[in-house]
Every structure is written in C-alpha cells, then in structure tokens.
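Researcher: Good morning. I'm working through a list of sequences from a screen, and I'd like to move beyond sequence-only analysis. For each chain I'm collecting a predicted structure so we can compare shapes side by side. This is the next one on the list. No need for commentary yet; just the structure.
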Amino acid sequence: MSKRGADDGGNGSNQPPIKKVHFEPHLIGPVSTLEEMDIKVLQFQNKKLAQRIEQRHRCEAELRARIEQLEKRQTQDDAVLCVVNRYWNLLNEDIRVLLQRFDAETADESENKSESLVTD
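Model: Good morning. Structure tokens for this chain:
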C-alpha cells in the first residue's frame, strides 16, 4: 500500500481526511439555576464561535493574498507568452520569405540550366 493510501485512513479515496473538532473542557463555575447554566453555556459557545469566525477571517485573508499572487503571476505569464507568440510569428514569417526566395532561386537555376542545354 502506498504512503498516500495509508495517510488517507484507508478509505481508498483521494479526499482529505475529515477534520475532527476537539473542544477543551471549560469550567463554567458554580451554577445555581438552570437559566444561569444556559447563560454560561451560551457565553462559552459565543466565545468559541467568535474564535472560529476570526480563524475563518484569517484563512480568507490568506486565500485572498494567494489568489492575488496567482493572478499577478498569471498576468506575467500571459505577457511572456504574448512576447513568445509574437517572436514565433515573426520567425514563421521569416521562414516563409526565405522559402519563397529559395523557390525563386531554384526556379531561376533550373530555367538557366534548361536554356543552356537548349543552346548547346
């Protein structure tokens, strides 16, 4: 079995492993009523959600920066390809002109040979 197959938990797919959420135990302190416990639980959940939102914002910012970097690189690559394409087209045109000249010279030489054969 390949290392990659062993890393993905043996499920046979190329999907990343499922992330497991792990919460650290949190002491909410003494609680005298069910309503007070609900309030503390909601405060804890709110705190954890705020942390997750902040983490998601950081991740989004990193991804935006990466997208910007890739777009800049794409623009540079496109510019390079445009220049290469322009020079390639010039080379093709030069080769076409050279072939036309060569064909014309070859035709002239064969004409001269046939004229010299006729005059001999």
